[in-house]
Structure formats: C-alpha cells, structure tokens
Amino acid sequence: MIKENQNFLNRMHVVLDAFVIVIAYVLSWYLRFRSGIFEMDPWYLSLQVYMSVLIFIVPGYLLLYYIFQLYTPKRVKGRRLEAWNILQANTIGFLVFILVLYFKHQTDFSRTMIFIFYCMNIFLEVLERNLIRMVLRKIRSQGFNQKHILLIGYSRAAEQYIDRILLNPDWGYSIRGILADNVPRGTEYKGIRVLGRIDNLEIVLPENKLDEIVITLGLAEYHKLEKIVKMCEKSGVHTKFIPDYNNVIPTKPYTEDIQGLPVINIRRVPLNDPLNKWMKRGVDIFGAFVAIILFSPVMAATAIMIKKTSPGPLIFSQERVGLQNKPFKMYKFRSMIVQDEKKEKKGWTTKDDPRVTTVGRFIRKTSIDELPQLFNVLRGDMSLVGPRPERPQFVEKFKEEIPRYMIKHQVRPGLTGWAQVNGYRGDTSIKKRIEHDLYYIENWTLGFDFKIIFLTFFKGFINKNAY
Fold first, then answer.
1. Residues 341 and 446 in one domain
2. What is the tens place of the pLDDT at every residue in 84-138?
3. What share of the chain is helix, strand, coil (3-state, %, to 5)?
4. Beta carbons within 8 Å of 260's beta carbon, 6+ residues apart
5. In which domain, by residue range, is 23 found?
6. Which helix (DSSP H) or strand (DSSP E) does residue 449 occupy?
7. How many structural domains are present in the chain?
8. Cβ–Cβ < 8 Å for 423, 327
C-alpha cells in the first residue's frame, strides 16, 4: 500500500512540476513582452515561437529534477535541501538553455525572458513543493499514509531513533515494536514495547504487514547482523541499519573502496581537499578586504573613543590556538583597563567585571571589538567563518574534559561560526559549542559559509553573553 501511495505521489509530483514549468514560462513571457515593465524590441519573436520551445523545456527540466533527486520520498527530507536541489537543477537548465541558443545563433530569443523564467520557476517550484509537504504532513500527523516499521535490537540507536520519530509525527512512521535479545520481553521505551526475541522475525516477516525493518543492534550484537539482513532481504521488506556508534563516526562518514573492501574514515573534513581550501582562502582574502573598507569608519570611531576614555594601547593582542594546534596572536580593540598579563589570564570575563571600560562594554556587546581580526584573516591566522579560537590554558583543560574537542583545530579558526549564530557565545555550553563546530567542519561548503555570514548580520553581532 505504501509503495502504491509513493508511486501515486511521484506521478502527481511529475504532473504538477510540468504544470508549474509551463505556468512559469508563460508568466515570464507575459512579464517580458506584455506587462510594460520592459522596453519592447521591434524584432521580438512571436508567442508561437516561444511556446514551441516548451516541447523541449518541460521534459528537459523534469529529467533534471529526477537527476537531482527531487522525486525521492520526502518523509525526512528537509525543506532547505529540497530548495537547494531545485536551485541547482534550474541553474543547470538555465545554462544549458543559454548555450543551446548560442550554438544555434538564436540572437532574437530574449535572454531577459529566460532569466525571468529561471527566477519564476525556482520560486513556484519551491512554493508548490512546500504546499504539498504541508498537506502530506497534515495527513500523516492525523494517522493516515503511515509507514509501519519494526526495530531489531534494543540500544542507544533504538532509543534515539524512537525519540526522533515521536518528535516528528508528520513524518508518518508508526513503530510497531522492538525485537531484542538483550532485554526482557515487555521492556518499554516511551510507549514502544519489546515484543519478543529476534528469532521471532521468522514468524513476523511472512505476515507481510511491515513496510520497513530498522536494525538497531547494540555494538555487542553485531555478529547477528548478517543473519538478520539475509532474513529481511529474503522476505523483500525494505531494511535500514542504524549503527550504534554514531557518537564516534559522523553523520556523513568519508568512505573509501579498496578493491571491494569498504573503508570508513572516522572523520570527514572537506577542507582537507586542496581545491576547497584554496576557494575558502580566496573568499577570506576578498571578504576581509571588503569588510575592512566597509567598517573602516566604525573602526576609526572606536579607536577615537578608546583613546579618549581609557589610557593604554588601542589594540589588545592575545595568544590563541589555531590551525594544527599552532598558537597565534589574535587582535581585538582593547575593551578593558590595562592590567598585568598574569591577572588577565585568570579566566573569562564575568558579569559586571570591573576591568571592562564603559566603551569596552558597548563594543563587546556589539562585537565591534572583534573587527581587528579582519587583519588576522588577511595574515592567514584566521578565516571569516570557522570555530572560534580559544586560549592555550583553556585548550589544555577542554581537551581532557570534552571528547573530540581538538578536532576543531583541523581548520582555521573563524571570526564567526555556526556555534555563534546559533547562540553559543560567551558563557554558554562548551559541549554544545563543540557539537556545532564539528558539524560545521564535517559539512563545510562555500554555501554554508555564506549562510553563516548572512546569519551573523542578523543575529551574530549582538552578544547577550558578552560582559
């Protein structure tokens, strides 16, 4: 039944996508040639010529949507990922469209209209799919279009999976129960009961009442995995495996194939790739230059206020630990009274700290004190985006207390970061900060960097935890 529903949904998606493509194209033609917004050219082609191209555009774009996995099940697929795939597919379509016109020497075909179609189609596709998503999630949250699953094995992985399913009823998953050998029958976790032993799978599978089997064995039971997989595949039931070592191996592990032998790397760091590294460095240099020019009036005003209100140097430098655990001098506008170096190292600034000047309190709260770090970015000590660097004494402390803490030093530290735009600044959870830093390191893309920079302007500058 679920497979039939999924096939129906896929067909509906294809039909709706085709309809949206046509509507976007017709609206684009109207905006270009009939709205009065754009100047009319005396040589423009007829409506019939423009509409005849739809014979190629519609199937071409549907093929691109298929290539970019826009017809895969969307129960747990995020909106942002789907929108990103739509953007990529339409960008490829736009470029191919332009190239075809160039090679066919079609100079009369309006490039402006093609660009309007590109923007219009992305907007309408995202809107259409979000409306469908809302309807499906509403239906699923009411108990319809459910996918019935059975868990094999009781472990941390099983509990974490149940937590997520119960937290998101709109995904449409119904957990029938658990089969496990390591806990007694009747054991319950948030209403999901252990129904029996794993051997009962031989009785359950022939009944053909399940849509999925999810294997959530504990580490000590992995010797049973091969037998369970064989049983599930023999029955034809779709099977998933959720490893019980997700606290060691990341969500997106880097895998290698050595002549048929799968090898899983414990940590995937995209910035170890030379091309990624050079692209990020190029963006850092360009971005730092632009930011220095844009913020130069702010920096000049800050320097004058510091000089007039507190004796001492304008810039305060402090040793931090950076890329590959190497120390460097990080620059900030001085926000405290001049003090002995040993006293300065005693710890973090506290609320109503008497060492902080009046001007210093303002520039710390608004992150203006961090602007000199743009010169650290130019020097190569830092990046615009990355994990925030810490002082050596705290690095020594945290590396013993927090697992995986030192992984953050595999990339350049940043002026802003994923943890900071999510509110983990100042006196907040170090563990949560590290979790966000590791997510950034393992999932880095240039687009992710731009997103963090964008979010910094809206919620990253004002720091309520800065004292």
1. yes
2. 889 989 999 999 988 988 888 877 788 888 999 999 999 999 998 888 878 877 7
3. 55, 15, 30
4. none
5. 2-141
6. helix 446-455
7. 3
8. no
